[in-house]
Amino acid sequence: MSLETVRVAPGFEKYLPIEYQDLVNDSQFVKERKVSEIGSFKELIEEHPMCAGCAMTLFIRTALVGLPNPEHTIHIGTAGCGRLVLTQAAVPFIYGNYGDTNAVAAGLKRGLSIRFKDAPKDVVVMAGDGGLADIGFAAVMHSWFRKEKFTTIMLDNEVYGNTGGQESGMTQKGMVLKMAPTGKKFEKMDMMGLAKTAGVAYIARVVPTNPTRVANTVRKAVLIAREIGPTYIQAYTSCNIEYAIPTPKVMDDAREVEKDRYGFTEYLTDEAKAYWEHLEQERRKLKVPAAK
Ligand SMILES: Cc1ncc(C[n+]2csc(CCOP(=O)(O)OP(=O)(O)O)c2C)c(N)n1
Ligand code: SF4
After folding, report:
1. If residue 76 lies in a helix (H) or strand (E), which one and from where to where?
2. Residues 236-241: what's their mean pLDDT?
3. How many angstroms does the Cα of residue 24 sit away from the middle of ligand 1?
4. N or C: which end of the chain has fewer CB within 10 A?
């Protein structure tokens, strides 16, 4: 949880793997990074076993750049494609059973707040639409109603990708999938609306067509969760395998979906808005440029 706890004795640093040296000397652990700098610093994730062209990977890669304090962040994930990337990142990861990510995150966040009163520890759940809107639905809703202070990010590929194409509550009505051969009979769940009803402090919907926006949204969500209450990001992260999107067309699909039905939206409660304005003022005073 802290570089200090794994700091090697002076003089021995040079014997550690180059990956470790880069991480402690030239990554987000040392200073805040911008999406536009990707390629010129050591990223928290560099390798993964996801399908070629998977938009979920692009989303997670840029989302990680937005973490305000990765050294003191814990990710909670579960079965589903996203954990294949998250488990490779230089951020501690806890594998919740499928369906209980938000219960695990709530307990963890509360424990961390007691143990580290003066040092904020950020907890971020990243899981699929099946994991959050279907099997984990109750735990998600209760973490929101109870105002648990962590961020939930839904990797919404509108299908159970990892298990071969079952419909989820987030699949669009009428969609035919390998394991929904007669087409989905119900509407896509309105998780944004449910988040609002539950009093979630910051809610955003994004598509990874604009990586800077993804990183900024994650930063905002994590900072607001730290101080105010639960935050929720719903990210369209198409499954090119189950939706048969040719790899070179993945971003075309993302742009079309964004234009048609998944435009960037954000909502803040009054309390979250006031807190965010305060943070922005402080940032301006310190003359720290906004991330780009
Ligand atoms: C309690 C439980 N039920 C079912 C499964 C099997 N399972 C593993 S991944 C998965 C679907 C994942 O879909 P989603 O959460 O939408 O993530 P994606 O793979 O699409 O990213 C299921 C049903 C499981 N691991 N645990
Ligand atoms: S199955 Fe779909 S969501 Fe999973 S890694 Fe492949 S393209 Fe991505």
Report:
1. strand 73-77
2. 97
3. 34
4. C
- Give the pLDDT of residue 10: 87
pLDDT tens digits for range 169-218? 999 999 999 999 999 999 999 999 999 999 999 999 999 999 999 999 99
**Pocket around ligand 2: residues whose beta carbon is below 6 Å from it?**
50-51, 54, 56, 81, 157, 161-162, 239-242
**Given a cut of 90, is residue 150 above it in pLDDT?**
yes
CA angle 132, 120, 72 (to 5 degrees): 70
Mutational pocket test of ligand 2: of 241, 247, 249, the residue with most ligand atoms within 8 Å of the beta carbon? 241
Could you tell me the CA-to-CA distances from 142 to 83, 88, 153, 213, 231 in Å, in that order? Answer: 23, 29, 16, 28, 13
| 78 within 8 A of 126, measured Cβ to Cβ | no
Cα-Cα end-to-end distance for the chain: 27
Mean pLDDT across the stretch 86-96?
A: 95
CATH of domain 3-285: 3.40.50.970
Cα 201 to ligand 2 centre (Å): 30
CA angle 282, 151, 47 (to 5 degrees): 100
Percentage of the chain exceeding pLDDT 90: 89
Residues 224, 271 contacting (CB under 8 angstroms): no
Q: pLDDT confidence of 257, banded at 50, 70, 90?
A: very high
